[in-house]
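Q: Got a minute? One more chain.
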Amino acid sequence: MDQLTQLLQQLQAGHTDARDTLFAAAYGELHHLAHARLRNGGGNSVLDTTSLVHESYLRFVHAGELRAEDRRAFFAYASQVMRSVIVDSMRERTRRKRGGVAQPLTLSTKLVATVAEAQETVLKVHEALESLAQAEPRLAKVAEMRYFGGYSEQEIAEAMDISERTVQRDWEKARIMLLAALR
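A: Always. Here it is, folded:
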């Protein structure tokens, strides 16, 4: 059994000091996951990799109980939390942009249009993913891990305990359904 799984078991047993040790031990992998999330589905210039990891940690702490039995479940949950942080950040930026008192002044309108398009895309993908989760939960999970988490097909197969070929089929089907929902 690896260190993270042992720390998760200690945390489940009520050892509150195990939480900080768990995050210290997982920090490097969480940082890598956050980098993949921002590269593949973040499109967000406000959050950087480190701030996404730290904001996710704060959400873990405020949530109270962490229900992950092993390493795979922990990182799958971390991926969901990071997605939530990115989406909330996009919503906040959009809200401020539409209702803020002072409008930012830029010299290039192309930059603003590009950032706005990226924000809208992430929010649209999030909404389409929520709809997909209601209809096809496994497809939504594969798409979330692939698009937002940056997981490889092999990593998804291991985390979900399914074959790589099933992951490939689910990813293809999920992409088609998400594209249809986005149009």
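A: The longest helix spans residues 71-99.
Q: Perfect, thanks.
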